Amino acid sequence: MIHCDGLVKIYKIADLEVVALQGLDLQVESGELMAIIGNSGSGKSTLLNMLGGLDRPSAGQLTVDGKNLLTMSEKDVVRYKRETVGFVWQNNGRNLIPYLTALENVELPMLLQGKRKRERALELLEAVGLSHRRNNKLNQLSGGEQQRAAIAIALANHPKLLLADEPTGSVDTKMANQILDLFRQLNREMGLTVVIVTHDPMLAKKVDRVVAIRDGKTSSEMLRRKSYEQELIHSEEGVEELEGESHVEYAVLDQAGRLQIPTNYLESIGADRSNKVQVILEDGKIVLLPPK
Ligand code: ADP
Ligand code: MG
Question: How far is the CA of 10 from the centre of ligand 1 (A)?
Answer without folding.
Answer: 10
